[in-house]
Design goal:
Vanillyl-alcohol Oxidase, Chain A, domain 3, five-stranded antiparallel beta sheet, Uridine Diphospho-n-acetylenolpyruvylglucosamine Reductase, domain 3, alpha+beta, globular, about 450 residues
């Protein structure tokens, strides 16, 4: 192992290779803290050529490696007992092509960085995970990240046109096309969402969208969670598709109130954050229709932002909710599953039963418009009994999502966390086919191994 570190330092420079107990502690996991793998070392390449050098050295010595952005992933996707290939120094916006509505960026650039670079041209980058101020484009591509605005604009895959990447065999490839509807097979569709198992992205060409003329935001408070999620289904049913439609339950409301001093109506046990974009006329019509639906579903109070400052204030509770769980426990696991939105009332009731049976606290938030659930469980991950209870509850929740015709993940990926649950969704033949696709990439066995697909027979 010392020879590997030596070779990496010779190729990248000593300041670009970090090793030692402190590095192991910092990089032993991502935001899924219950799975830890101390790395051999962390490398900080600055170019495609340097990434290529790292991959070749790892191949030469038979050492596994994984790319890592900001470490905000929630499923253990960037955790590896080998070489962590950090994109922290590959964080530049290389070009904004306003005429063709494209941005060319390095993988370490953040979502927010891309949008800010596009703003002077009247453009923006649509994918917006809640960690968008720190989450990186490379990580978004690996996990096919979504966020609150997925309902209207789709996930990362809908906004990536082309990537440059270092393949597991050390070669550099360009996949995708800046021209829509280009002929031939599209391996880019395999890469987005492959969780870094097919190579290391070193450059990405992203689709930018024109900024809307108007954005309207409102908070709708409900006495019962089932009334809030019933309003979601009714809105979509009448053809109202908001930019965002976020659900938070009473546990999150209490946490946010205690953490940040926010006041909510005393009778409220859930809220919907609704956002609409378009023209002045279209947003006014959609907000009016959504307000009518909320009224029919028993809304307790409706708050409508009058300007940008009030809009930011309404978003504050949602953006800071998960962080507020730190008041309850030193760590937390944010689970991720998707179900048909019409089944949200039943799902929330069943999750409450699971939490009580397993002796865990579950705080629920959801991208309710597309049925993407995030049951969050605060816990002390140093306590094996608490971790075991969390896993038992997670197992039941994942089985519930599949039973309801949904998925074990909506945007967080499989990583280490959900490997056991892949068999709930795929047959042995299905999984074998996916493994053979990965195995078509020479050198695959060292490229972020043990993620996405369970081993045959395991």
């Amino acid at each position: 192992m010392a020879r590997v570190v030596e070779a990496l330092r010779a190729n990248l420079g000593s300041d670009a290779v970090l090793a030692g107990p402190a590095v192991e502690r910092v990089y032993e996991c991502d935001a899924y803290t219950v799975e830890k793998r101390p790395p051999l070392c962390v490398v900080l390449p600055e170019s495609t050529e340097q990434v290529q050098s790292v991959v070749r050295i790892c191949r030469q010595h038979g050492v596994p490696y994984a790319a890592r952005g900001a470490g905000t992933g929630l499923s253990g996707g960037a955790t590896v007992a080998g070489v962590v290939l950090s994109t922290r120094r590959m964080n530049r916006i290389l070009r904004i092509d306003a005429e063709n509505r494209m941005a060319v960026v390095q993988p370490g650039a953040t979502n927010l960085q891309v949008t800010r670079a596009a703003e002077p041209h009247g453009l923006f980058f649509a994918p917006d995970p809640s960690s968008q101020h720190v989450s990186t484009i490379g990580g978004n591509i690996a996990e096919n990240a979504g966020g609150p605005h997925t309902l209207k604009y789709g996930v990362t895959a809908n906004h990536v046109l082309e990537v440059e990447m270092v393949l597991p065999n050390g070669e550099v490839a360009r996949l995708g096309s800046k021209v829509p509807e280009a002929p031939g097979l599209h391996p880019l569709a395999l890469v987005v969402g492959s969780e870094g198992t097919l190579g290391v992205v070193t450059e990405a060409t992203l689709r930018l969208l024109p900024k809307p003329q108007c954005v309207r935001t409102a908070l709708a408070f409900f006495a019962e969670p089932r009334d809030a999620v019933r309003a979601v289904s009714e809105m979509i049913a009448i053809g109202v598709v908001p930019l965002a439609l976020e659900f938070l339950d009473s546990t999150f409301m209490r946490v946010v109130s205690e953490s940040f001093g926010l006041d909510f109506p005393p009778a409220a046990r859930a809220f919907l954050l609704m956002e609409f974009d378009g023209t002045e006329e279209s947003t006014a019509e959609e907000l009016s229709a959504a307000s009518d639906v909320c009224g029919r579903c028993g809304v307790v109070e409706l708050q409508i932002a009058r300007d940008e400052a009030e809009r930011a204030s309404l978003w504050y509770a949602r953006k800071n909710a998960v962080g507020g769980l730190g008041r309850i426990a030193p760590s937390k696991v944010t689970h991720d599953g998707s179900i048909p939105r019409s089944k949200l009332p039943e799902a929330l009731a069943r999750i409450e039963e699971i939490a009580e049976r397993q002796g865990v606290l579950v705080a629920n938030l959801a991208h309710a418009g597309d049925g993407n659930l995030h049951p969050c469980m605060p816990l002390d991950d140093r306590d094996p009994e608490q971790v075991a209870r969390m896993h038992r509850a997670a197992d039941e929740i994942m089985r519930l999502c599949v039973e309801m015709g949904g998925s074990i993940t909506g945007e967080h990926g499989v990583g280490l966390e959900k490997l056991p649950f892949m068999r709930l969704m795929f047959s042995a033949d299905d999984l074998d086919f996916q493994r053979r696709l990965v195995q078509a990439f020479e050198g695959f066995e060292l490229c972020n191994p043990g993620k996405l697909l369970p081993e045959a027979g395991a």
